[in-house]
Amino acid sequence: MRIQSFRYVMLLQLAALIIATASAAPVPPQPPPVLQKAPPPGNSVRGADIYEAKCGACHSLDANRIGPKHRNVFGHKSGSVPGFHYSAALKKLNVVWNAQTLDRWLRNPTAMAPGTAMGFRLSNGQERADVIAYLKQQAQK
Amino acid sequence: MIDQIKSRRRMLTGAATALSAAGVFALFDRPSFGAAVSGKKAGNASQDVQLLNAALSLENEGIAAYQIGAESKLLKPDVLKVAITFQGHHKQHRDDLIAAIKRLGGTPVTTKPVPEYAKELNAASLKDQTGVLRLALKLERGATNAYLGLIPSLDQSGLYVLAARTAADESFHAAVLGQVLGDAIPEKAPMFG
């Protein structure tokens, strides 16, 4: 009887040790990062709807609100909309907003300008392209 | 019989010791363990303060928008009652955000005078109840998406719930407003995010 109990104890302890070892196992090496694909072509009509639904809480084309106004932002330097109080991060960002820079920005703004007040990420690449096409269109009017 | 009981005790004690050790090791191995215990995570709290202050600005604007709607005399009494209730929710969101910002050691942004918000939101163009509700719907829908899109940028994991539950409230507001306006239920999901 004692031998059987001892076996149970040993088995349980072994199982617990396996669980502990598995939990503490090092993370397997990650594959190398895949090169970013070129942004897909955008559609400004879809972009207008996405802009209103996903950007419209903070932004308008013609009024500075939580974020700066966006008409003519495409093709202009970052942090340059008159009358808007930018964070220090945006003041020193120093890029021109084009399809590439806007795609980076919308994908992960805090990575592009650490310290920015904009945390919203537009994770869908097609939606980013559509919004960028819309902003480009609004800069041409 | 006594031997059997002693043996069971030893077995249970041994297993409990081993499992406790396993559990402790497993917990310490998780990077979020410290955060779960202390409510903080080694990271950039000042970045989170910036992001939460932007959300606070959003709530301040929402509160002002409902104030503008309530004072417009364009809303029917039953709709006005709902608008004031929704404004109350936004005030609670505001207070939650202020508390979170202070916990992180930040300074909450202050609100602006209502006429400034009215100008920014082009409130002068509102001519009827439908116009007021359309503006409210746009802001609520946008706010839902804003909170959902904010979550991956937050550093402190404890803030994910704050952002997610606020997003849920905003989506509730959007659903009610859409219903009042007679908008069709969206056929595609996900509707937000």
Features of the shown structure:
heterodimer; A: 141 residues; mainly alpha; Cytochrome Bc1 Complex, Chain D, domain 2; 6 helices; 47% helix; B: 193 residues; Ferritin; 2 domains; 73% helix; globular
What this model shows, in words?
The complex is a heterodimer of chains A (141) and B (193). By secondary structure, chain A is mainly α. Helices cover 47% and strands 0% of the residues of chain A. Mean pLDDT of chain A is 85; it is low at 21-25. Chain B is 73% helix and 0% strand. Chain B contains 7 helices and no strands. Chain B is globular and about 45 Å long. Mean pLDDT of chain B is 84; it is low at 11-42. Chain A binds chain B through residues 1-2, 5-6, 8-9, 12-13, 16-17, 19-20, 23-24, 52-58, 60, 63-67, 87, 108-110, 114-123, and chain B through 3-4, 7-8, 10-11, 14-15, 18-19, 21-22, 25-26, 29, 44, 46-47, 50-51, 53-54, 57-58, 61, 119-122, 138-139, 141-143, 145-146, 149-150, 152-154.
Summarize this structure briefly.
The complex is a heterodimer of chains A (141) and B (193). By secondary structure, chain A is mostly helical. Chain A has six helices and no strands.
Total helices of chain B: the number is 7
Helix content of chain B: over 70%
CATH superfamily of one domain in chain A: Cytochrome c-like domain
β-strand percent of chain B reads under 5%
Classified in CATH, the superfamily of the largest domain in chain B is Ferritin, core subunit, four-helix bundle
CATH topology-level name of the largest domain in chain B: Ferritin
Count of DSSP strands of chain B: 0
The ordered string of helix (H) and strand (E) elements of chain B is HHHHHHH
**Span between termini of chain A:** 89 Å
Envelope shape of chain B:
globular
- Decide which structural class fits the backbone of chain B: mainly alpha
Oligomer: heterodimer
Could you give the count of β-strands of chain A?
0
CATH architecture of the largest domain in chain B: Up-down Bundle
Proportion of residues in extended strands of chain A: under 5%
CATH topology of one domain in chain A: the name is Cytochrome Bc1 Complex, Chain D, domain 2
Shape of chain A: elongated
Tell me the span between the first and last alpha carbons of chain B. Answer: 64 Å
- Helix content bin of chain A: 40-55%
Major sheet of chain A: none
